[in-house]
Amino acid sequence: MSKWSFCIIMLALLSIGDLKATTTNKEVNINKVDEILKTADCLVGQEGLEIAFNKMALEMNQELKDKNPLLICVLKGAIYTFGQLMTRLDFPLEVDYIHATRYSKNQGQKLKWIARPQKSLEGRVVVLVDDIIDEGITLSNLIEFCKNEGALEVYSAVLVDKNRTRAETGLLNADFVGLKIPNKFIIGAGLDFEGYFRNMPGIYVMPSDASILCI
Question: Is omega for the bond preceding 32 within 30 degrees of 0, making it cis?
Fold first, then answer.
C-alpha cells in the first residue's frame, strides 16, 4: 500500500468522526489560521524532515527486518509520519491503526478510546508510530495495552522527542526518534493546533501571541 493510499483511507475514517462533531464544534476563524501560518517560526524545514525520516527508516530497517512487525499508526497525529515511513521501510510488515486520546477536559492520565487495532496483537512484534513524545503518558498507556493484548515485543517510533521532563508514569524514551526539539508549542508534520496545520511540510513554533482559533 502506498503512503498516499494509506493517508486517504485514514482521512476517510477520520472524517466520519469529524462529521459527527460538526454540529457541536465552534466556528473556526480561518483568517486566524492564515495569520498563524504567516507568523510562525520554522524550526525544521522540509529538508530536515526528510533527513529525520531517513534516519528513522534506516534504524527501523536494521532492527525490524526479520521480525514481521505490525506497525500501528497512532491517530491522528502520526498519519504524516506513518505515510512517510511506509515508502522507506523495505521489509515485510502489516499495518493497523489505533486511536486513543487523553487531550480532553479533566482527562488526566486516563485514555479515551476511539478505535482499537483490528488485528490480533497476540504473539506479534508491534511498532507504535506516533508524532511526538511529550509527557510520555499516552505512549506508555498504549504500550501497556499492547502488552496486555499479548504482544511479544512493543517498539515505539516518534518523529519528535520534545526536550522536557516526562510525567512520572510516562515513557522516558522512544525506540526510534527522528528529531529532538526544544520544549516549545509546535505545529506541522502531523502536529496540530485546534485541528489545523497537520499538513504543513515542516515543524513550526506557534507565535507566542496566538489566540484560540475558534470564535
Answer: no
In whole angstroms, what separates CA 117 from the centre of its chain?
15
The full set of domains in the chain, from first to last, is 3-13+26-205 (3.40.50.2020)
Report the pLDDT value the prediction gives residue 14, as an integer from 0 to 100: 52
Which cell is 144 given? 501497556
pLDDT higher than 90, residue 7: no
Query: Which grid cell is 13?
Result: 475514517
In DSSP terms, 97 is beta-bridged to 73
Whole-structure pTM value: 0.83
- Exposed, middle or buried by CB within 10 Å (0-12, 13-18, 19+), for 117? buried
Report d(CA 39, CA 78) in Å as an integer. Answer: 25
Q: With beta carbons less than 8 A apart as the criterion, state whether 40 and 204 touch.
A: yes
Q: Contact, 128 vs 158, CB < 8 A?
A: no
Q: Could you give the count of Cα atoms lying within 13 Å of 54 in the half-sphere of its Cβ? A: 6
Q: Report the half-sphere exposure of 96 (CA within 13 A, side-chain side).
A: 18
Question: Which residues lie closer than 8 Å to 47 by C-beta, 6 or more apart?
Answer: none
**Cα–Cα dist 5/8, whole Å:** 5
Residue in the structure block whose three cell numbers are 496486555: 148
Pairing of strands 176-181, 203-205: unpaired
d(CA 50, CA 179): 11
Residues in Cβ contact with 4 at an 8 Å cutoff, skipping those fewer than 6 apart = 83
Phi, psi torsion values for 46, nearest 5 degrees: -60, -40
